Amino acid sequence: MNAANVDQAELAKFSALAHRWWDLDGEFAPLHQINPLRLDWIDSISPLSGQRVLDVGCGGGILAEAMARKGAEVLGIDLADKSLKVAQLHALEAEVTGLSYRQVAAEALAAEMPGEFDAVTCMEMLEHVPDPAAIVQACAALVRPGGWVFLSTINRNPKSFLLAIVGAEYMLGLVPRGTHEYARLLRPSELGRFCREAGLDLQHSRGLQYNPLTQRFRLSADTSVNYMVAARKPVPAA
Ligand code: SAH
């Protein structure tokens, strides 16, 4: 059992900012900015309406709530209690239905609900856990055969160090200092290996590029800094 696959210092960082999840100009502004892009990308690969979707490491529910608005039945999980409370309150206030939240580890839920989701999303979370491969394994166990797993993280190379850490944290102040630790960033090849080892077929990837002049993100083929992948769980041959 992998219940200890959590870094309490990481959880504490997010908990301390929990009241800021829905502040569009606050510490989580970049997540609000990329949200429509990732939402549309997910929806274009695995149409969300009517689907059962799990969002792992949901935080304040920025993506989970948007997927529920698209007609998915969404369960958001995280280990930070404060963030889940904020997510729940926001869903109530916004009167979004088909959305629930639970404080449970992905690995524990995988034992409880294997294969029960049409899609599993795990965004901007893998770089905050001690054993990201185990989270990918859990996502693979939670999705049904034929279903999709969507993952996003930050690449690890000199350019991503400059842009995602020095630039975003120290120069532009886009995210708080200390948000990302270089050693925990993941190369697409590493994430691809985690997917393969979990029995998933990597099928698509997209980069999320930030333009500091327009202060906007856009999707591109360039996965050198922020990027997402879509992997499918194969349907066993009859
Ligand atoms: N996925 C959300 C939030 C990303 S921030 C989004 O993209 O909008 C990273 C989140 O991962 C935080 O909410 C943090 O509490 C959560 N997290 C960190 N370690 C975790 C773990 N071991 N299990 C579940 N969630 C975790």
Description of the structure:
- By secondary structure, this protein is an alpha/beta fold.
- The chain has a single domain (3-232), classed as Vaccinia Virus protein VP39 (Rossmann fold), CATH 3.40.50.150.
- It contains 8 helices and 8 strands.
- Strand 6 and strand 7 form a beta hairpin.
- The protein is globular, with a radius of gyration of 16 Å.
- The two termini are 31 Å apart.
- 43% of the residues are buried.
- The model has no long low-confidence stretch (mean pLDDT 95).
- The chain binds S-adenosyl-L-homocysteine.
Q: How many strand segments? A: 8
The percent range for helix content is 25-40%
Kindly report the spatial arrangement of strands forming the biggest sheet: 3-2-1-4-5-8-6-7
Instruction: Quickly name the level 1 CATH class.
Output: Alpha Beta
Distance between the termini: 31 Å
Tally of distinct domains: 1
Structural class: alpha/beta
Radius of gyration: 16 Å
Identify the overall geometry: globular
Our count of helices gives: 8
